[in-house]
Design brief:
The chain has 219 residues and is α/β, with parallel strands linked by helices. Helices cover 47% and strands 20% of the residues.
Length: 219
Amino acid sequence: MKKLMIADLTVVALLLAFATPLWSQEDGSSAALDRRVKAFLGSHASEWHDWNVPEVDGKLLHDIILRNGYKKALEIGTSTGHSAIWIAWALSKTGGKLITLEIDESRYKTALGNFRKAGLSAYIDARLCDAHELVPELEGPFDFVFSDADKGWYKNYFDVLAPKLAVGGCYATHNVSDRRGGSFGLSSYVEYLKGLRNFETTFNNSGAGVAISYKKSEK
């Protein structure tokens, strides 16, 4: 009888050992990643100068992705990785992944190191390339796009990617607002976005300016 009780307890212990981690490991892993990303961003808060977004804009992108559950993201213009970290952090929670494009090799290599330090490399497909050439070749579909590259090419990027953006998806463009569009020579781009019937665009002016365009329909 005693042996049977010991055996029963052993079985229960084994069941608990295998069952409990299904929850604790996921929660612990997510919490550990959150702590690591927060620590990295906090320790580098004053270092994002090389064509990176301000923190308020990074948080905005992060929250858009989480709120909508986006999983397939594209970024044009990695720089040294600040915005990509915010985007990938959100995607780590939705089960998604980011493709990010950078033309400058030095910034690209710095970004790769930053992704590793932040613990987000698994959620980022970083590519050293000319976006003018690669963007038309990308198949999609995407549900989130962040454009922060050469301003004179903004409309070209949008025209190529809009058909590859899922209905309900978001196309965010940096350094654009309804108040400061002209400061980057982007007033015509602002008017272009406003005139699209199948997109609804609003402008967030709290940081460097972000045009937020949601796709309502294919046409």
